[in-house]
Amino acid sequence: MRAILALLMVATLSACATTGSGGPLAERDPYEGFNRGMWAFNQAVDTVAIKPATTVYRTVTPKPARRGLGRVLANLSEPFSFINNLLQGKPDRAFNSLGRFLINSTIGVGGLADHATDLGLPATPEDFGQTLAVAGAKESPYLVLPLLGPSTVRDAVGTAVQLVADPARIVLNQELSSTQEYAVTGARVLDGRSGLIEGGADAVLETSADPYATARSAYFQRRDAEIRDEEGGDATLSPEEEDRLLNEALEQDSIQPEAAPEQEDQVPKDSIRPEESPSGPETALLDIFPSNVLREDSVSGGD
After folding, report:
1. Phi and psi (nearest 5°) for 142?
2. Distances (CA, A) of 163 to 77, 104, 170
3. Rounded distance, CA 215 to CA 279, Å?
4. How many other C-beta atoms can be found within 10 angstroms of the C-beta atom of residue 23?
5. Mean pLDDT of the residues in the chain
6. What is the band of 189 on the pLDDT scale with cuts at 50, 70, 90?
7. DSSP state letter for 226
8. pLDDT at position 250, please?
9. Beta strands 149-152 and 142-145: pairing type?
């Protein structure tokens, strides 16, 4: 149903085109009127349903259990990454994804533990939207999908393809009952929304003068980096290191720097002013929004 809806939207967008605000990003957002309306709809759904459910989930589920669920869901995406890496002519990355899946599915107990990273196989995720970009569709109009959030016309097609061609989804659809499939989808939604809360995306959007434009800018920068295979080393960080870096990026007051040894006796501690943090909220937003949500049946949105 979601695949059909996404394709119908892509086919009818020409009737929804409006002229947005000026600037380079506006040129990539010819459907801004439609997109802002869909953004408002997604935020309303998030406010009344998704965020409250996620808050309960985070309250009753210990952090190690939430982390394990996220790893299991990420492990399920490895076969599709393997296929897309092959389609993009990247055999090394393809077999890296395959190796991760085999290792984490066995000694990692279905992905609960990420032993593949410890063994030198960092995540190399790819999706069909990236495959289309490598094939030549690098520039594509911005598009906000219902419930799925920020995307482009190209990535909407990629999402639709994933919904019907992802090997993990095919197997789960064949082996699970309808109730169990809904449970898996619900787990994806909760895991993705929990990641946004934990990473601080809500705070970024709530303090932004234009949350829609902030999310749009972050999405384009993030996707452009993903298409260039710029993982930025995120996959090699431990969960504790990820949490620390995100918290530092979102701090509004930096930690006071230590005085240089030669000035230690001359400059009082209280006179040292905190340095400006080289990272800001938008940097953290790029790291966590919306990469783990858009292709995992989650809801994006700030509030």
Report:
1. -65, 145
2. 12, 23, 9
3. 17
4. 10
5. 79
6. very high
7. H
8. 52
9. antiparallel
Q: Calculate the dihedral angle through the C-alpha atoms of 240, 241, 243, 249, rounding to the nearest 10 degrees.
A: 160
Q: Which amino acid is located at 227 in the chain?
A: I
pLDDT tens digits for range 200-247: 899 999 999 999 999 999 999 999 999 999 865 444 444 555 455 455
Distance separating alpha carbons of residues 114 and 237, to the nearest angstrom: 11
Which residues are registered as beta bridge partners of 143? 151
For 93, the token pair is 């990355």
pLDDT at site 23: 53
Q: Give the whole-angstrom CA distance, residue 199 versus residue 56.
A: 17
Compute the half-sphere exposure of residue 234: CA atoms within 13 Å on the CB side of its CA.
20
Q: What is the pLDDT of residues 12-58, one digit of tens each?
A: 443 343 334 445 677 899 999 999 999 999 999 999 999 999 999 99
d(CA 193, CA 173): 23
C-alpha 217 chain-centroid distance:
14
Radius of gyration of the CA atoms of the chain, in A: 21
Two structure tokens written together for 32: 């801004």
Q: Which residues pair with 199 in a beta bridge?
A: none
Residue type, 117: T
Query: What are the percentages of helix, strand and coil residues in the chain, rounded to 5?
Result: 65, 5, 30
Contacts of 204 (CB under 8 A, 6+ apart): 214, 250, 281, 282, 284, 285, 289, 302
Alpha helices for 88-136 (secondary structure H):
91-106, 115-118, 128-134
Which of 132, 114, 131 lies closest to 123 in space, CA to CA?
114
Q: What is the dihedral of CA 184, 186, 188, 190, to 10 degrees?
A: -140
Please, are residues 97 and 235 in contact by the beta-carbon 8 Å criterion? no
| 3-class DSSP assignment, residue 88 | coil
